[in-house]
């Protein structure tokens, strides 16, 4: 089962005609419902009737009363069960919601839903995820609410910086899927992107989606531009968590639900240690029964980039997971590496090199190049930003991110097909 409706919330900065354009854009990309919340917009800030001509409106009462002008345009109305479950007109469908302040046991959660609701009301239960190991608790809460209210009426959501994979596992039986349009704002921490949700739906419709507990995903920080969800078989989740997030606990808790993960910056070293890999860094996890087996297919990417760069002596900026792959393949490729940490960059660099720092990390202020050819192994917008930095500092960027990415992704695909 997939969610009945994909709900996108109108960002608080968008007013008037900008709000209309946003609604048109997310409709084109596959949204079914536009949510407008009373805590994010004043009644006069948006035209409810104009928005409703683009997408069905879900009007959510959050602390401030529901404006009559919005109510006239609404198809769905969200009200907190602790405030009211009354809907003034039969033309509206109620979303009865409860937003818990702390993680709840399933027994505690069920106690919140003792009251009688309108026969066709949707039930929306939201709580902080807490420890990643609570995925199973939320799944039990979802199952028990479905048993009480019926399939197709229940939505259970976890919230938090590491909640995305819990939300997508829950989404398999949820009625509503609250997703983010993209950019710098989302309505709640842990939301996945609308484009990723639609990509999975299309795969389900074509009959090409993986089934059961065979989801895949990419784990990293600031990975909105990752191409992995676009090239690998669906469902493939973009799990963007903070650099200090509990990634070890997260992958352990998701073992029953995922067949494998791609691992990118900054978790390649941490997960190598956690999985007791015989490698300095890993970029791929594959489920083997009740454990994770780890691999580093970045070696294939490193080989491709060193071959394209065509130099026998290469300096490397940064000493993280990508550099570990370069070290592993350099002797075989006949390349001598000079690995430079941030504190070791003092004089202008010449010759050929590789930039491995993520673009979210500021390079040393004193970094300069004296005509050096510097390979960029990021791609998309991050790769372009790195290239601009290299040129600004006197170097010539060589865009090799796609070569690295494609070479390592081919090997990842082979490994994931062997998951058990």
Automatic annotation (TrEMBL):
SUPFAM superfamilies: Aldolase, Aminoacid dehydrogenase-like, N-terminal domain
InterPro entries documented for this protein: Aminoacid_DH-like_N_sf (IPR046346), Shikimate_DH_fam (IPR022893)
Domain of life: Bacteria
PANTHER family associated with the record: BIFUNCTIONAL 3-DEHYDROQUINATE DEHYDRATASE_SHIKIMATE DEHYDROGENASE, CHLOROPLASTIC, SHIKIMATE DEHYDROGENASE
Name under which the protein is recorded: Shikimate dehydrogenase
The organism of origin for this protein: Hyalangium rubrum
């Amino acid at each position: 089962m997939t969610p009945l409706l994909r709900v996108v919330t109108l960002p608080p900065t968008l007013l008037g005609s900008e709000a209309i354009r946003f609604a048109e854009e997310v409709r084109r990309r596959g949204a079914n419902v536009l949510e407008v919340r009373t805590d994010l917009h004043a009644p006069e800030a948006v035209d409810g009737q104009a928005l409703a001509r683009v997408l069905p409106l879900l009007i959510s009462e959050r602390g401030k009363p529901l404006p009559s002008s919005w109510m006239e345009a609404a198809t769905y109305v969200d009200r907190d069960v602790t405030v009211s479950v009354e809907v003034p007109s039969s033309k509206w469908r109620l979303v009865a919601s409860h937003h818990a302040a702390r993680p709840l046991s399933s027994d505690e959660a069920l106690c919140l839903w003792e009251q009688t609701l309108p026969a066709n009301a949707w039930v929306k239960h939201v709580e902080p995820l807490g420890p990643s190991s609570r995925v199973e608790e939320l799944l039990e809460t979802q199952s028990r609410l479905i048993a009480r209210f019926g399939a197709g009426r229940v939505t259970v959501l976890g919230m938090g910086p590491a909640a995305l994979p819990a939300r997508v596992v829950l989404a398999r039986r949820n009625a509503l899927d609250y997703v983010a349009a993209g950019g710098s704002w989302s309505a709640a921490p842990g939301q996945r992107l609308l484009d990723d949700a639609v990509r999975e739906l299309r795969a389900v419709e074509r009959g090409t989606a993986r089934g059961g507990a065979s989801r895949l995903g990419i784990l990293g920080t600031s990975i909105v531009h990752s191409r992995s969800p676009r090239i690998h078989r669906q469902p493939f989740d973009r799990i963007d968590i903070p650099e200090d997030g509990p990634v070890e606990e997260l992958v352990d808790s998701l073992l029953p639900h995922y067949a494998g993960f791609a691992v990118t910056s900054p978790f390649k070293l941490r997960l190598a240690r956690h999985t007791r890999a015989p490698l300095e860094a890993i970029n791929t996890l594959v489920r083997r029964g009740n454990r994770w087996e780890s691999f580093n297919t970045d070696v294939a990417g490193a080989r491709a980039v060193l071959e394209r760069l065509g130099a026998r002596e290469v300096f490397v900026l940064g000493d993280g997971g990508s550099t570990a792959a370069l070290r592993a393949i350099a002797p075989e490729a006949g390349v001598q590496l000079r690995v430079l940490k941030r504190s070791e960059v003092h004089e202008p660099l010449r010759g050929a090199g590789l930039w491995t720092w993520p673009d979210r990390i500021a390079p040393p202020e004193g970094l300069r190049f004296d005509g050096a050819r510097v390979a960029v192994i990021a791609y998309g917008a991050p790769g372009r930003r790195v290239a601009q930095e290299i040129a600004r500092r006197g170097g010539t960027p060589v865009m090799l991110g796609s070569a690295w990415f494609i070479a390592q992704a081919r090997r990842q695909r082979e490994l994931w097909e062997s998951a058990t």
